[in-house]
Amino acid sequence: MNQSVLSKIFMLAFYFLVGVVIGYIIYTHTLKPQVITVVKTKTLVKKQLIYKKQKLINSIMLAKWIYHNSFRCSFRQAKEYAGIILKEPYPLLIASIIQRESSFDSTATNRVGRTLVIGLMQIYCTKDHIRQLKKAGIINNIRDLYDPEVNIRAGAFILADIIKINNGNLVKSLEMYCGGSRRYSSRVLETLGQLTLDVK
């Protein structure tokens, strides 16, 4: 076998190995985490319900976490927020969403296109959401969403409905909550995983 043939074989083998390495990197950093997350998120949902029922979530630890992960939240406010959040079915998920959405700033206001987005949980003020929240007796008008307790109740109500629709799949639920961003859902779940360890 002459040298040029050996050289071509060597180059083909080299490119093949490079392709395998690149494929592995892509898999471990994108596809694999998503597959694992879909399986684990249902467990995280169930764990939160168990933690809440058995009162295993430490409210002071949650308040400290809020204080250290907020934009400009006093410890007194952090304790108030923790107390409100712990009344809801998925407290740690809600805290994780608030940290990503507003850094616990109750005055946070944004616009996505022509839609107003308000408060701690950045509630999308779509006609459908406002109608549902009024029907549930959570708000009387949009301005009510600037109240931290009302905003958290509204966000928890919307989130619970979305989780039910998606059969407990938090990846899909978070994508639906924020309007379709998988990157957002990954960040919230990363925060949720750490928070679950911090407050028990």
What this model shows, in words?
By secondary structure, this protein is mostly helical. It has a single domain, classed as Lysozyme (Orthogonal Bundle), CATH 1.10.530.10. It is 68% helix and 5% strand. It has helices at 3-53, 59-68, 75-85, 91-101, 127-135, 148-165, 170-178, 182-198; strands at 109-112, 115-118, 123-124. A three-stranded antiparallel β-sheet has the order 1-2-3. β2 and β3 (123-124) form a beta hairpin. The protein is elongated, with a radius of gyration of 22 Å. The termini are far apart.
Q: Which stretches of 5+ consecutive residues score pLDDT under 50? A: 26-39
What's the N-to-C terminus distance?
Answer: 67 Å
What's the level 1 CATH class? Answer: Mainly Alpha
The number of domains is: 1
How many strand elements? 3
Please give the radius of gyration in angstroms: 22 Å
Short descriptors:
Lysozyme, 200 residues, mainly alpha, three-stranded antiparallel β-sheet, 8 helices
Layout of strands and helices, then pairs:
Layout lengths: L2 H51 L5 H10 L6 H11 L5 H11 L7 E4 L2 E4 L4 E2 L2 H9 L12 H18 L4 H9 L3 H17 L2
Helix pairs in contact: 2-3, 4-8, 6-7, 7-8
Question: Outline of this structure?
Answer:
The protein has eight helices and three strands, in the order ααααβββαααα. With 200 residues, the protein is mainly alpha-helical.
